[in-house]
Amino acid sequence: MKTRTQRGVALVMVLLIVAMATTIAAFMAQQQGFWQRAVENGRDRAQARRIAEAGIDWARAVLADDRSVNDFDHGKEMWAMQLPAIPVEGGEVQGTIYDQQGLFNLNNLVRNGKVSTVDLARVQRLLTALGLPQEIGGALVDWMDTDSEVSENGAEDEYYLNLAKPYRCANRPLSDIGELAWVKGFDASIIKRLQPFVSVLPESNTAVNVNFAPPEVLMAILPGLTLQDARQQATQIKSNPFKTTAEFLQKLPKSAKQDSTMNISVSSQYFMVTGYATQGDGASAVHALLHRSGMWATQARKSLQ
Ligand SMILES: [Ca+2]
Ligand SMILES: [Ca+2]
Questions:
Q1: How far apart are CA 85 and CA 63, in angstroms?
Q2: Terminus of the chain with fewer CB atoms < 10 Å: N or C?
Q3: What's the gap in Å between 86 CA and the centre of ligand 2?
């Protein structure tokens, strides 16, 4: 027969085992909850991504439709409208198309591996208009040209290989605006200031679509144009966009000097498309650079988040 003490110990053991079993069960239930939520989140995110990517196909269709209507592009056209998010089952989706040719294409600066001096002068005018140092234009030329000869205010391998964390000069066109952070003289605040006015397109002789050009870009392509005239011009264009470049040239303010090498247009081939979608707890953003040739646009670059 068990003593009273033995019975007491046994009871404590039972209570301990029950307590442990309860803790383990609670822990397992919690883990299962985490796992289930992780699966659900993964599923929501995958769905959101598929919907956001479908936004790119929507943009291609919209841009093709636009080209079937006319051969000029401006901010009052349907494709350029910013639409609010549209509800879809389980979430919402938003797609926006941004013109890229009202901006100055930095890759125009170097053509076939050599500096385009007229474009360097344009970049320097743009930098001045933005209150940035002109000198960084020289470093950008060297970063992109294929030779290793140091230009005025430039920098080649010798400079970059002597940095605390050395790397080589790219000697090729830019692939992305973020790449500027590697170039001598550029930093985050300069890139932030420059970004709304420049693009990085996979070609080196693209026209500026004057219908989308901000005053600072108009100043860059039209020597002598004052900031006041450029602002007035950009405001007028916004409400009365041009259908031909001839019309634009006719209405140029007196302060602007016409440049025979100026490459302008009233239409665009490059567009940045952003697709954003939510599904349950998941969200996804897609950015794609589209190149429209004829009616159809192909994807030149894409990033997913
Ligand atoms: Ca159009
Ligand atoms: Ca170089």
A1: 19
A2: N
A3: 47
Burial of 210 (0-12, 13-18, 19+ CB in 10 A): buried
Please list the residues that pair with 105 across neighbouring strands.
Answer: 199
Among 209, 191, 229, 216, smallest CA distance to 270 is for 209
Ligand in closest contact with the CA of 146: 2
Beta bridge pairs of residue 285: 276
Instruction: Return residues with CB closer than 5 A to ligand 1 (ion).
Output: 66, 70, 73, 77
Question: Domains of the chain by range and CATH?
Answer: 108-197 (1.10.40.60)
Alpha helices in 70-186 (DSSP H): 117-129, 136-144, 157-161
The residue assigned the tokens 């030779």 is 147
- pLDDT value for 16: 64
- For residues 305 and 236, the model is more confident at 236
| Beta strands in the chain, from DSSP E residues, in sequence order | 86-88, 91-99, 104-105, 110-111, 114-115, 198-199, 208-209, 264-265, 270-279, 282-293, 296-304
For the chain, percent of residues with pLDDT exceeding 90: 69
pTM value is 0.84
Ligand positioned closest to the Cα atom of 268: 1
How far apart CA 233 and CA 252 sit, in angstroms, is: 8
How many other CB atoms are there within 10 angstroms of residue 284's CB atom?
23
Measured CA to CA, the distance from residue 248 to residue 252 in angstroms comes to: 6
- Which of 228, 187, 218, 201 is CA-nearest to residue 98? 201
Gap between the Cα atoms of 30 and 128, Å rounded: 60
177 CA to centre of ligand 1 in angstroms: 26
Average pLDDT value for residue range 22-29: 61
